[in-house]
Design brief:
binds uridine-diphosphate-2(N-acetylglucosaminyl) butyric acid, UDP-n-acetylglucosamine1-carboxyvinyl-transferase, Chain, 23 strands
């Protein structure tokens, strides 16, 4: 079992380069299935969600060639419409995107209900609503979602819930459907726009991505492209929070500062200095922060994927902070771990109240999901003493070389592989 050991309390300095966006690349790679020709996708991050996606595509018959560490050529011509079973789908949420792409290409798809971070109830009713509106029969049997359509015909769809996944799946299914599809109450996240831009570069006709009405006029075929994934807004935000928690001065390169604005604004409000340039930001931590209130919202609001990290910074801000999570039911699972480090946080439903303490203290803690893991790294870096972070596979799903990037900034972090305790020994201990 791998874990991170972090000695906290060090000031960091220097520069970090942000990788390609996880939530864009996990949509863009499956989107290549819709193309009739090979595609090159650049700026892909080295994270396990990418390797799982490429492995699934390779097992379907795609020819995958890594051109270098961050560019891959995918030839989708040999892909067969094979079912994606639970063993594969449980490993990440974005396997749902195979529903939209396989449906778009083959007019049928068979994919297990997805896995991903446990953040509470994560239904896919809006994805199915959209597929059905385009003329698809949707059935759930033995945990598998079965989609089939004689023809896909454009339609007008209003999402009852603002959903990134349903918007992306709707675009994928509609891109080669007959006629016009209009998606209303669409998600506006940067990764939705990036997927639409990528598909347009393959010859799709999508307008309005980034607003709440997206219009997709179906085309007969898509051609090859070379497309570079946008930088990861949440990885950048996480390093901004690292600078804040460790009171450091860090330059964060390869970012789109506009995407970071909701995070930047909150950090400035609590007392962090943020300077914005064309494609980088400089974050200068302060000695004292003031508590604030934050409510997560779909883009351009404060992103739920940054809620654990900013809450961690606020554990040491003076006064009371109030965090309201409006997207997911259960995104405070990291709070118990932060309490082990001395944070004073109480949670009632979707609201966490943080009473600032002077310092966190190092402790053994467990990453309960991807962003929770990032939050614990931030906590450990800012804390006094040594922390051990377990279950770091969650972190490696979405952050490329996290410990190397942090070490390059001067952090005292190492990854160690500790042998698992055999089950019999655990039983004896109990
Ligand atoms: N929802 C429904 N029905 C649906 C779909 C969603 O009720 O059919 C609800 C969800 O339960 C949730 C809300 O709508 O309450 C938003 O869910 P959304 O569909 O937008 O989330 P997602 O597509 O499952 C993506 C990201 C998440 C990120 C959310 C919100 C990917 C692969 N995942 O998930 O990323 O938190 O959007 O922005 O893009 C992460 O990166 O750590 C992460 C969890």
């Amino acid at each position: 079992m791998e874990k991170y050991i972090i000695k906290g309390g060090k000031k960091l300095s220097g520069e970090v380069v942000i990788s390609g966006a996880k939530n864009a690349v996990v949509a863009i790679l499956p989107a290549v299935i819709l193309s009739d020709e090979p595609c090159v996708i650049e700026n892909i991050p080295g994270i396990s969600d990418v390797s799982i996606t490429l492995q699934i595509m390779s097992e379907m018959g795609a020819k995958i060639r890594m051109i270098n560490k961050t560019s891959v050529e995918i030839d989708p011509r040999g892909i067969m419409n094979v079912p994606i079973p639970y063993e594969k789908a449980k490993r990440m949420r974005a396997t749902t995107y195979f529903l939209g792409t396989l449906l778009g290409r083959f007019h049928s798809a068979h994919v297990s209900m997805p896995g991903g971070c446990n953040l509470g109830d994560r239904p896919i009713d809006q994805h199915l609503k959209c597929f059905a509106a385009l003329g698809t029969k949707c059935e759930l049997d033995g945990g598998m979602i079965h989609l089939s359509a004689d023809r896909l015909v454009g339609n007008q769809i209003f999402f009852d819930k603002n959903s990134v996944g349903a918007t992306i799946n709707g675009i994928m299914a509609a891109v080669k459907a007959e006629g016009l599809t209009i998606i209303e109450n669409a998600a506006k996240e940067p990764h939705v726009v990036d997927l639409a831009n990528c598909l347009n570069s393959m010859g799709a006709d999508i307008i309005g991505a980034g607003t709440d009405v997206i219009k997709i006029r179906g085309v007969r075929s898509l051609h090859g492209t070379t497309y570079s994934v946008i930088p990861d807004q949440i990885e950048a935000g996480t390093f901004m929070a690292v600078a804040a928690a460790t009171k450091s001065d860090i330059i964060i390169r390869n970012v789109i500062p506009k995407h970071l604005e909701p995070i930047t604004n909150k950090l400035i409000k609590i007392g962090v200095q943020v300077e914005q340039f064309d494609d980088y930001v400089r974050v200068i931590g302060g000695e004292n922060y003031v508590g604030t209130s934050i409510k997560t919202h779909p883009h351009p609001g404060f992103p739920t994927d940054m809620q654990p990290q900013i809450s961690t910074v606020l554990t040491c801000a003076s006064g009371t902070s109030m965090i309201t999570e409006s997207i997911f039911d259960n995104r405070f699972r990291y709070v118990d771990e932060l309490r082990r480090m001395g944070a004073n946080i109480s949670v009632e439903g979707r609201v966490a109240v943080i009473e600032g303490v002077e310092k966190l203290k190092g402790a053994p803690v467990r990453a309960t999901d991807l962003r929770a893991g990032a939050a614990l790294i931030i906590a450990a870096l800012g804390a006094e003493g040594t922390s051990e972070i377990y279950d770091i596979y969650h972190i490696e799903r979405g952050y490329e070389n996290m410990e190397i990037k942090l070490r390059d900034l001067g952090a005292d972090i190492k990854k160690v592989d500790e042998p698992d305790i055999p089950e019999t020994e655990t039983k004896q201990a109990i």
